[in-house]
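Input record, target 12 of the design panel.
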């Protein structure tokens, strides 16, 4: 990792493509069931045209393609060519469904036609944007009247361990300091419901998802995530290599200790509708 991936006002400090695939797989194992259920509850079904914005390695895009079937279409959009290359190489779209189309897009200006999707999904996108409100307005433009946004985002401050640990507290503080320096908000999830309504959506449904772990692979998610961003933290002067290495060691110990409860970051989730046109 050479540093943050910045394009316009998009700041993504985590690994992409092959290098980030293991973390994203673990992330989906932690949060994916709730994401899938929310999409189904929001009306995801056969024949829909769906955009998976900030699709990453395509895990959700391929699952969505199975739900919409051969009569539906899925577009996976991302700003990272590494992510798109990895997603395109995966063949798990399922028998009887069309593979997603993966395209390079900017969340602020996708270049896609207005009112062309029945549903747009995005997970952990807005916390990496300097202008999340502009991205939500673009999503609103892309949806057909009556179309649905399903969005989940981050509330980093909610990470904790029991017993409490200085390592967890310090890592969260460093994450927020990095976000402030980069001009993004890793607690954007707390604003998600109001930001969605301000973008013109109606009838929001809100859920909070916060997985906890005593053991298992998922317990290592925050340690692995933090490890990926440490080069950026060091480049920004938030700590030395030795200081960060000590902190990473403590986070790893917590992940391995089955006497310690680790709570992953809470993910506020919102589904909301683009209002139907009202004839004058």
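The sequence produced for target 12 reads:
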């Amino acid at each position: 990792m050479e540093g943050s991936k910045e394009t316009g006002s998009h700041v993504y400090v985590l690994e992409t493509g092959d290098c980030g695939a293991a973390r994203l797989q673990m992330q989906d194992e932690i949060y994916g069931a709730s994401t899938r259920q929310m999409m189904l509850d929001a009306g995801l079904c056969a024949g829909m045209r769906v955009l998976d914005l900030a699709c990453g390695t395509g895990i959700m895009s391929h699952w969505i393609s199975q739900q919409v079937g051969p009569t539906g279409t899925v577009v996976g959009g991302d700003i990272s060519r590494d992510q798109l290359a990895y997603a395109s190489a995966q063949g798990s779209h399922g028998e009887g469904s069309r593979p997603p189309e993966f395209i390079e897009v900017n969340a602020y200006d996708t270049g896609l036609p207005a009112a062309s999707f029945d549903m747009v999904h995005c997970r952990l996108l807005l916390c990496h944007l300097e202008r999340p409100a502009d991205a939500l307005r673009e999503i609103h433009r892309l949806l057909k009247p009556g179309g649905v946004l399903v969005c989940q985002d981050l509330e980093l401050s909610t990470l904790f361990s029991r017993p409490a640990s200085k390592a967890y507290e310090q890592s969260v503080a460093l994450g927020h300091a990095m976000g402030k320096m980069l001009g993004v908000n890793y607690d954007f999830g707390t604003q998600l419901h109001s930001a969605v309504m301000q973008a013109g959506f109606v009838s929001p449904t809100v859920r909070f998802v916060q997985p906890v772990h005593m053991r298992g692979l998922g317990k290592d998610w925050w340690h692995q995530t933090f490890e990926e961003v440490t080069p950026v933290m060091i480049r920004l002067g938030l700590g030395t290599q030795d200081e960060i290495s000590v902190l990473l060691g403590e986070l790893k110990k917590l992940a391995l200790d089955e006497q310690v409860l680790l709570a992953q970051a809470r993910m506020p989730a919102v589904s909301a509708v683009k209002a139907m046109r009202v004839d004058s």
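The chain is about 40% helix and 20% strand.
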